[in-house]
Design goal:
By secondary structure, this protein is of the alpha/beta class. The protein has three domains: 85 residues, Phosphorylase Kinase, domain 1, CATH 3.30.200.20; 245 residues, Aminoglycoside 3'-phosphotransferase, Chain: A, domain 2, CATH 3.90.1200.10; 123 residues, no CATH class. The protein has 16 helices and 13 strands. The strands form four sheets. It has a five-stranded antiparallel β-sheet with strand order 1-2-3-5-4, sandwiched between helices. A four-stranded parallel β-sheet has the order 11-12-10-13, with helices on one face. The longest helix has 29 residues.
């Protein structure tokens, strides 16, 4: 395969392929490679499903002509199942969400990027969908009753069955029919992206670009918005979702007339089916294909279901589906198999710059003042070093007050960690501050993280604020 990619690259760019490196594809059977030539970088995709390749290449061409920000296609070799496309870098919207969770960027950056994405979505759906040719659609030209049935059966057989959630099949099928009719009662003539979620939105020079649109088909506006706002692992707050929903409707009104009340009710019905489709995928990938990381998305989807049941009432009655959702929410098996570990975030910081921001929202945790400890930064030989350097470590480990300080820190923090795990809390922040955020605070943060990393019941994120700038 590498030889075929090399030949296509050399022919396309009239230069030699110097290096090719594989790229991880989340949950996809496609294989991606980054290709390097003489001042040229592109991606190569290999996919044995030729129909999917044809759909992607056709859709990319149509969307580009309509001014939609999708990757350019440089070359294709359908017979050998490969094509070359524009390299959009490594950062997607989900990466930004994770960076914010680690404290590497401020939430305002994530928020502003979501605003940009929301403003682009109606353009994709309406301008992109105008006179769109679906003749190469994969696998279906419209999100119709057949498409909906596939998603609902996916949910039933790969999630409910494998999770051992009880249901009465005929009653559930009756509810599926009611839900399907309601979903299709709205205007379904727009471009439905199908997988409009955070991993498929790239950040390129502060602008959103869109990938993995080959499953697009004709459908309702609400589906893609539901995919974005209830993207399980993005874990957006209910308040932010509502803000983005209102922003979307405001943008949408620049294209078409909108009945807000009707739009929102249909929107939440599409949220339900999108969650069920996602759960089917988690079950298939997690239980059936034994890819455990997919199971870790289940608690986020359950949290979304819980919020919907507590806050949204549809005009249609779905008694068996409501009962199934309640069984999912209260399932001990799902809680045990997909329970989230306690995330312990450890930070070093400088008191000159102020306290670190608590991104978890729970306001708890510890802030330890290291300024009473003998400071190696006062000595010339240590000034350019940090608390991670062996010379500074040796200096502080000889100090009795530093050892006593850390002994007390360890007692306090491990007591809280044990209780937080027992009570199934999700976040604990532990901060160490000193004058410059360089020596003592870094030393203690590193020392504590090494010990806590040995605990299998928690995940640890370590951040040195002054060192990461």
């Amino acid at each position: 395969m590498n030889l075929k990619i090399r030949n296509l690259f050399n022919k396309t760019f009239s230069c030699e392929l110097e290096k090719i490196t594989p790229i991880l594809a989340h949950g996809s059977s496609r294989e991606y490679f980054r290709c390097y030539g003489d001042n040229i970088t592109c991606l190569a995709a290999y996919n044995e499903d030729k129909k999917e390749n044809i759909a992607f290449l056709d859709y990319a061409g149509q969307l580009l002509k309509k001014g939609i920000s999708v990757p350019k296609i440089y070359a294709e070799d359908i017979d050998n199942s490969i094509y070359l496309l524009e390299d959009l870098g490594n950062t997607n919207l989900f990466d930004m969400i994770e960076m914010e969770a680690r404290g590497e960027i401020d939430f305002s950056e994530v928020k502003n990027f979501y605003y940009k994405v929301i403003r682009e979505l109606p353009k994709i759906q309406i301008e992109g969908g105008r006179n769109f040719d679906y003749s190469n659609a994969f696998p279906r030209k419209a999100f119709d009753s057949q498409s909906i049935a596939w998603d609902l059966n996916y949910f039933k057989y790969y999630f409910l069955k494998l999770s051992e959630i009880q249901y009465y099949e005929q009653d559930l099928e009756n509810d599926f029919t009611v839900l399907t009719n309601f979903l299709l009662s709205t205007d379904c003539s727009y471009f439905l992206y199908r997988d409009f979620q955070s991993r498929n939105i790239m950040l390129v020079e502060d602008k959103p670009f869109f990938i993995d649109f080959q499953g697009g088909r004709k459908g309702a506006l609400q589906y893609d918005l539901a995919s974005l706002l209830f993207d399980a692992k993005a874990d957006l707050s209910p308040e932010f979702r509502i803000e983005l929903l209102d922003l979307y409707i405001s943008e949408l009104k620049q294209y078409i007339a909108v009945d807000e009340k009707e739009f929102k009710e249909v929107f939440y019905a599409y949220v339900y089916i999108r969650i069920m489709q996602a759960m089917g995928a988690y079950g298939f990938r997690g239980y059936f294909e034994r890819k455990e990381h997919f199971l870790k998305s289940i608690p986020f989807a359950i949290a979304n279901l819980r919020w919907l049941k507590d806050n949204i009432t549809l005009s249609i009655k779905l008694p068996e589906l409501d009962r199934v959702f309640q069984n999912i929410i209260s399932s001990k098996k799902l809680m045990d198999i997909s329970s989230k570990k306690l995330l312990v975030t450890i930070k070093s910081f400088s008191y000159k710059k102020g306290y670190p921001h608590d991104i978890s929202g729970n306001g708890g945790g510890f802030v330890f003042d290291c300024r009473a400890i003998h400071n190696p930064g006062r000595y010339e030989e240590y000034k350019a070093l940090t608390g991670k350097d062996k010379e500074v470590i040796a200096f502080l480990e000889k100090e009795e007050d530093a050892l006593l300080f850390f002994e007390n820190v360890l007692k306090l923090t491990t007591q809280s960690v044990d209780k937080y795990v027992e009570r199934k809390f999700s976040n604990l922040m532990i901060c160490f501050g000193c004058t410059g955020g360089q020596h003592r605070s870094v030393f203690f943060a590193e020392k504590l993280s090494k010990i806590l990393l040995q605990n299998p019941d928690i995940d640890v994120v370590l951040q040195h604020i002054e060192q990461n700038k």
